[in-house]
Amino acid sequence: MGLILSVVDRVDHISKEDFINNYLKPRKPLVIRKATEGWPALQKWTFEYLKEQVGNQIVPLYNSSKADPSKPINAATTEMRFSDYIDLIQREPTDLRIFFFDPIKNVPSLLKDYHSFKDLMGGFLDKYPGMFFGGAGSVTFLHYDIDLAHIFHTHFNGRKRVILFENKWRERLYCLPLATYALEDFDIENPDFDKYPALDGIEGQEIILEHGDTLFMPTGYWHWMKYLDGSFSLSLRAWDKSLGIKVKSLYNLTIQRKLDNFLKKTYQKRYMDWKEELAVKRANKALTARDLK
Fold it and tell me: Strands 231-238, 130-134: parallel, antiparallel or unpaired by DSSP?
């Protein structure tokens, strides 16, 4: 059977009413191809322009390797001058990525080049945009965002493949305890169903984003991303109206994250081994429950 992947809906434009009724309320992903056509960033944000703006800023870089059990999940692998990194991803494939680069902190003038999608919904966290850069072949591991925000993810200057799953599949995705990410031993692009049988039959969606495309990812959606070209994206976040989701977000960002980091630092490999064993047990239990239906 394998993974059952359908294509994410695509539109050029969408009204607020259609967006809310057909995508926001039912928690359904959508690609809006021309939502950014009025942004100066669409033509302005070339690699050379960003190099001119950011220049000698030293940026932390992340790779696709399995997390060090003694470090927080977002610990950097190395660092580099921003301009040198941009030259690298234009020159050759690399698995090094820039994660959640803050344009407000580093280059306030970039804020004039885009705007939130307030014509579609409210709740945007305008003070917390994030930019993500990757070289051809680099991968963002399978996870869902810890703050549970809705995400509008706009891509620039290349292509990126995205695979999405509803949060209802988290146990069969081998979600690690006290975390919002999956076991990193399996390749979601080409899963080993003998080793990870719970993945077989999971339903998801996929899309290849191109320059200017905006992907709406509803709260709690799992996503895996692969840069097909050296390129970058801008993520804008918006709160869901649900009080329950906001409370869960606060718990994730405070209690869960601090407890997970404390246990990693204290028990290191023994803790990570326990997390992985429990993730497998939960996945197998979920698979058995499906077979008994």
Answer: antiparallel
Rounded to a whole number, what is the distance in angstroms from the first to the last CA of the chain?
A: 18
pTM (two decimals): 0.94
In the β-sheet with 4-7, what is the strand arrangement from edge to edge?
4-7, 203-209, 160-165, 222-227, 139-143
Residues 171, 220, 271, 258: is their CA dihedral positive or negative?
Answer: negative
In the Cβ-directed half-sphere of 114, how many Cα atoms lie within 13 Å? 29
Query: Which residue from 141, 206, 138 is spatially nearest to 175, judged by alpha carbons?
Result: 141
| Phi and psi at residue 289, to the nearest 5° | -60, -35
How far is the C-alpha of 221 from the C-alpha of 168, rounded, in Å?
A: 9
Instruction: Let me know the angle formed at the C-alpha of 151 by 40 and 229, rounded to the nearest 5 degrees.
Output: 65
Whose tokens are 């996945």? That residue is: 283
Tokens of 129: 């945009």
Q: What is the CA radius of gyration of the chain?
A: 19
Which structural domains are found in the chain, ordered by start? 4-292 (2.60.120.650)
pLDDT tens digit sequence for 13-72: 999 999 999 999 999 999 999 999 999 999 999 999 999 999 889 999 998 765 555 565
Tokens linked to 168: 């209802």
CA angle, corner 210, sides to 207 and 213, nearest 5? 85
